[in-house]
Structures are given as structure tokens and as C-alpha cells.
Amino acid sequence: MPTTNKQVLLARRPYGEPKEDDFSVVDTALDDPREGQILVRNRFLSLDPYMRGRMNDAKSYAAPVALGDVMVGGTVGEVVASKHPRFRQGDVVTGALGWQEHALVEGASAGLVKIKERPGVPLSAYLGAVGMPGVTAYHGLFDIGTPKPGETVVVGAAAGAVGSVVGQLAKLTGCRAIGIAGGAEKCAHVVKDLGFDACVDHRSATLKDDLAAATPAGIDVYFENVGGPLLDLVLGRINPFARIPLCGLVSQYSETQPYGVKNVVSLLTNRVRLQGFVVSDRMDRWPEAQQRLAGWVAEKKIVFRETVAEGLASAPRAFIGMLRGENLGKQLVRL
Amino acid sequence: MPTTNKQVLLARRPYGEPKEDDFSVVDTALDDPREGQILVRNRFLSLDPYMRGRMNDAKSYAAPVALGDVMVGGTVGEVVASKHPRFRQGDVVTGALGWQEHALVEGASAGLVKIKERPGVPLSAYLGAVGMPGVTAYHGLFDIGTPKPGETVVVGAAAGAVGSVVGQLAKLTGCRAIGIAGGAEKCAHVVKDLGFDACVDHRSATLKDDLAAATPAGIDVYFENVGGPLLDLVLGRINPFARIPLCGLVSQYSETQPYGVKNVVSLLTNRVRLQGFVVSDRMDRWPEAQQRLAGWVAEKKIVFRETVAEGLASAPRAFIGMLRGENLGKQLVRL
Lengths: 335, 335
What we know:
The structure is a homodimer. By secondary structure, chain A is α/β, with parallel strands linked by helices. Chain A contains nine helices and 15 strands. Chain A has helices at about 50-55, 130-145, 160-170, 185-190, 205-215, 230-235, 265-270, 285-300, 315-325; strands spanning about 5-10, 25-30, 35-45, 75-80, 90-95, 100-105, 115, 150-155, 175-180, 200, 220-225, 240-245, 275, 305-310, 330-335. In chain A, strands 3, 4, 5, 6, 7, 14 and 15 form a seven-stranded mixed sheet that branches. In chain A, strands 10-9-8-11-12-13 form a six-stranded parallel sheet, with helices on both faces. In chain A, β11, α6 and β12 (about 240-245) form a beta-alpha-beta unit. The longest helix of chain A is centred in the middle third of the chain and has 14 residues, at about 130-145. The mean pLDDT of chain A is about 95. The interface of A and B includes residues 240, 247 and 278 of A.
């Protein structure tokens, strides 16, 4: 039984873009499981943009991480010891067990899910296309975006863990899927590997014209992961009765001066529905979503890319890089 | 039979705030009705913020008014001659017959409605609480705002034709109704005459604190008529799962530099649904809305104020004043 645990703690609240020394990597003593508990060895840690919000001491849908606490985060790992009847040694579990190698948790914890491994679906997929990002894409696109065949769906951060699934779901629905991503490499990946109809580079000097050329019939659904000036640009091409699932605003999380969205009048004249959502509000959608996503992944109808950092100590650096858009696809840390 | 007609034409597209010489008042020859037509003597013309949008040559939900054309506008009047079997001399009709004293129209025109006068409901109410503004309030609040008893409903432009009805409908639903209006006189009217629970003055230096004091339990529904910095302020007090029916942006219509809304992240973290709407998209809601509104007006459960300008030639000046917020309640022109 392991007796020490490596953890990443929130050492300081970042101002603007996080820095590596906003975190501290520590070794702490690890107890044996008590009655009702299990000990999990995490194999992969998921790094996601929402974590930036948890580092602020601000009112939000979830409490902030306290200073000195282990950073929150989704994990997949295996049970190494169990004193809970539902779990046995060797079981694979996903949960939000945080930035740490081991986790000693109550077996009855909400969100702790035992995974039945299935051919064609790697473990890490349960943190990506078949996990929280995939379910986010599924709920946001289908329940809020309500796309209809033939409509144009534009996806921000299209090379990211959520966006990559959104576009593929849009294609499976019979829509035209247009990605927005940062840089030529990501755009090529979005079109060639993920099968979007086109992808525009938000760093390009001709972005406005590129977006217009890629959306000749306007935009019916904009899956918003980014925010900032891009939202104004999209609002300039939005169609009447369009829907905007507001999933993330990664361009804004570290901004000390948020961007002001000017084209609000387009929301009015086009009768747009813009709706913020958080996947954890709709736990009732997980079973259906996860089952269908796993099926599509196994059939290779949904493909995905991962960027994997090695070792827990690399997590802060990888997280900062992800906020800058340095990753392609799902950002993971192998523990 | 009258042989000339006074009309107000759009002479020039306004840049920013309209000026009186953007309009021209003309006398034109009037024909007798041909087969299928009716001649209407308009008694009241409605002046509404949406008209500012129609003066721009911009893509919107309705075509712009062409230069030299009669300005669009809702009217109530009486039939002076009819060659259509559905109408008789003396019938009272509402429609969008424009800024003119007489209108020669096809009796089969869409939107031309014969009014059955009813005790306690004055003719002019069919341009206000029982007409387009009232139905706008009804559809926007009930169908998009979906208020529940006990919730806090905040209403922009609360002393205006739409806002005044929204707040009274919120009270009839068992909500806390908070108005936002410009100046002490309007705020007093909103509370004392219209029965809102409180009203804050958007011109006050203490607006932010005043709004906080009036909404101790946050904001569940914000009926947006105004836009600009007020929207950011409201987003700072919005509750999780709040709804924002986006009905108008009167602060922005004449702005050449639109205000940038900064607190978009609040829409995300609070999972807010913001939805632009136009009442004419939902003609199916008119019969129910109009019937219930007329009933509430007759019972004095909905009261309203009117600001009446005298004579068609005063319409441009009255319209400019309305955009500045100089009116109290529904702005009309008596013809």
C-alpha cells in the first residue's frame, strides 16, 4: 500500500494568466482506507479551461478552490484498495479526484463512476470524447443548439476537447460544420482528421472574410467556447432564430479587462437565443450521452486527438499552455 | 369624401439621433376607394422605439422604410368609406397604416383588425396596453421570461408602453417587480400609479447601490428594453438560471458607437437564457394576449399613462423626444 501521495495545491490566486508558482507540488502522507472508503491510483488527469474560474475567489456555479487545497480536476484511475462493497481492487473509476496521484475517497461519493471497459474506447477517452467534454458537447449542441439537418453550425475552439466533438456531432446530424481554431496546424487537423467542412484561423488577418466565405448561408448555431471579439464577428453573420449555446469563454478567463461585446443589437434583430450552460446541471443527460458517444468512438464515427503531459509535476505548465491554446485536442496529464 | 391627405415621409436617413428635418410633412391627393379597398381616417398614431431601426438601411427583421415613403406606424381610426364587404362606414380599425391622417388600403390587408369597442377600454389603448406594446409585454414576459411566483422581475424602461405592462403582469403573477426608469418623476409614477414594488433611477449616481438594495434576492427575470451599461449592471446581480427577454435596446438605437457589454461571463456562470424576440413573429399569441389584456384594463388591474402630441405635424418632434425618454407611458399622436 503506498504511503505518500504527490499533489498539486493552489498556492496563490492567479492575477490574469496563471504562473507556475501559483501552484505547489507536494508529497503528503497517505492513510489506508477506512470503512466505506476506497484508495484510487489516478492514471490520467484532465486539464480543462473551467479550472481557471475555480482559481478565482468569485461567485460562480461552483465554489472556488481554497488556497492550499488540491486543485480540482477530472481523473480516471484504478482502485488499489477498497473498503466499500461497490468497488474491488482493479476496478477502473472516473471522478473528480483532483490534481494528485492517489485519492482516498468515500466509495459513495457523487460522481464516482465505475467504468466497464469496452473495445475501441481507451481509458483516457473517459476524460475526453466519452467524458465530461463529450457530454458537454452532446448536451450543449443537441439540447440548446437544437441543430437541424442542413443548418450551419460554427464551433469555437474547434480543435479542443469539447469543440472537436461538437463539430463531429453536427456532421452526424447532417449539418455544415465550420470550426474556428488558432493556427494553420489546428485548422488542418479540424478539417482533415475531424471532418469539419471548413475551419478558419482566428489569428488570420483575413478572419472576417474567411468566416464569411465559410458561412455563405449565415450561421444557425454558434457553439461558443471562446468569447471576445470572435463573438462580435459571429454575431455579424448570425441568422434569424439562431441559437448560441454558451459553453465557455476561454479568451476571457485570464483577462483583467474583459472584452465588451458590441453587436448585442444582432441578438435582438435576429431573435437569437443565447444560453449559458454547465454540464453538471444536467446529470440526467449523462447516461444517454455517454452511451451514444462511446458507441460512436468505438465505430470511429467520432475521432479525437490528445495532448499528453508526462507526470503530475508537469500539470501547472500544461494547464498554462492549454489556456494559451498550445494543445491539440484533449489536454491530459499521465500520472 | 376628403381629397387630400397629410403624411409624414422619411426624407433622409438619420445619423445618430434623428432630427426634425430627417422627416417631411406633405399634403398629397387622396383617391376614392376602389373595389376591395377602404378609406380610414386615423385618430391616433403610435410612436415606438422600433421605428428608429426602420430608418436605417440595415438588414433586420423588417425591411427599412424607403426614402420618400410614409413612415411606418401603428394606428387606430375609423372607416370613412368602404368598398370591401368586411367593413362598413364607422367601423373602428387598428393596423399599421403609418404616419398619415388617412389611409387607402385593401380591406384584406394582413394586420387590419376591426375593433369591437368595450366599456373601460379606450380606443387609444389598442395602440398601448391592449395593442402591440401590451402583447409584446405579454409574450416576452410569459413565454420567454417564464416568471414564477416569488421571483424578482426587473424591467427596463419601466415607465414606457411595454415596460409598464410587464411590471403589472409580473405583479399579477405574484412576483416582485422592480422598475428602472429615467428620473424621479417616472420612478414615482412606476411605484405609485403602476404598483411596482420599487423603481430605480438610471440617471442616479448611486444606481448600482440602488439596484442592489431593490433586489436583495438577486434578479430572476430581466425584461430588457434598454441595453448599454444598464445590462452590465443587471448581469452583476443576475441569479442562476435567470431569463432575459431581449425586447429592445433603446439606449443603443441612435448610438454610432455601440456600448460593449463586458459581463458576458455572468451569462455563462449563471447559466442565463437571453433571447431576442419580436412580437410579430408570434401572431398566434395575439388573440389570447389581447383578450386577457383588455379584460385586465377594463377591471383596472392594468393601468396606463399616455403622452399625447397634438396633430400629425408634431410627430417627428414627439418621436425624437420619446427616444430621449421625455414621454411618460405610451407616446401617441392625436390626428
